[in-house]
């Protein structure tokens, strides 16, 4: 019986390159392997970079959430570093009383304050997310507070009244209560001696929820006194919508 043996002869090809151990690896397969390795490396590097970036973003976000709003931070720093409260500043009971009123104000609260004082940063912070506006007799103090705390909205006004004119101003009010000094009016065009009519126009258009009269000075005869501030505050409060 004849048996036939089949021989397979492997001829070297121009498209093949010798491999380790005597085998051969096609060139296109070698390049494919290199490409796959490069792709895997690139994907792994991108994944790691993305995870690191995401971790940094989360850490940054958590840090932002943990930080106090700047107005509150400034106020805490101011009062913590301040000296012992001297006479002339508000007592703890007075500050708590005003804070309670602000706390009961539906946000956002429109808060108008006559006077720049030691408590200015406190009022601005307690009304966080609301609008707080300060009015003061001193253009110097207004510019200084705006320089140190740009977030504070403050305006200076020239008061025309004096403490020494108190009784004359009271008589003027009594005579003009139904005319120039009426409780509900447009202060911009008022001739009442107690009306403050040189503030920025937009101040008169705001529906103020809380008005605090903490200035101007009134402890000597030539000081402006607070008669005009009190009268103007009363008119602004009555001009608020739904208030007669």
TrEMBL record:
Protein origin, superkingdom? Eukaryota
Cite the entry's keywords alphabetically.
Membrane, Transmembrane, Transmembrane helix
Q: Per the record's keyword annotation, is Membrane included, yes or no?
A: yes
Q: Where in the cell is it found?
A: Golgi apparatus membrane
Instruction: Please name the InterPro entries in this protein's record.
Output: IRX15/GXM/AGM
Transmembrane regions listed in the UniProt entry? 30-48
Q: Which GO terms describe its cellular component?
A: Golgi membrane
Q: How does it sit in the membrane?
A: Single-pass membrane protein
Q: Which GO terms describe its biological process?
A: xylan biosynthetic process
Q: Which NCBIfam families match?
A: A_thal_3515
> What protein am I looking at?
Uncharacterized protein
């Amino acid at each position: 019986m004849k048996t036939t043996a089949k021989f397979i002869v492997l001829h070297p090809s121009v498209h093949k390159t010798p491999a380790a151990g005597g085998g051969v690896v096609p060139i296109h397969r070698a390049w494919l392997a290199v490409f796959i390795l490069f792709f895997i490396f690139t994907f792994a590097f991108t994944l790691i970079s993305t995870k690191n970036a995401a971790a940094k973003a989360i850490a940054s976000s958590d840090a932002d959430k943990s930080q106090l709003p700047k107005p509150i931070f400034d106020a805490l720093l101011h009062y913590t570093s301040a000296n012992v409260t001297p006479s002339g500043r508000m007592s703890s009971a007075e500050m708590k009383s005003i804070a309670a009123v602000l706390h009961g104000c539906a946000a956002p609260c429109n808060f108008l304050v006559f006077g720049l004082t030691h408590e200015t940063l406190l009022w601005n912070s307690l009304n966080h997310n609301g609008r707080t506006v300060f009015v003061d007799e001193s253009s110097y103090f207004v510019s200084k507070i705006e320089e140190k705390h740009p977030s504070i909205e403050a305006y200076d006004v020239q008061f025309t009244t004096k403490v020494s004119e108190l009784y004359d101003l009271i008589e003027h009010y009594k005579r003009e209560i139904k005319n120039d000094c009426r409780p509900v009016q447009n202060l911009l065009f008022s001739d009442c001696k107690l009306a403050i009519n040189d503030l920025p126009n937009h101040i008169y258009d705001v529906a103020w929820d809380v008005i605090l009269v903490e200035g101007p000075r009134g402890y000597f005869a030539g000081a402006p006194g607070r008669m005009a501030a009190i009268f103007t505050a009363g008119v602004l409060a009555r001009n608020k919508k739904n208030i007669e």
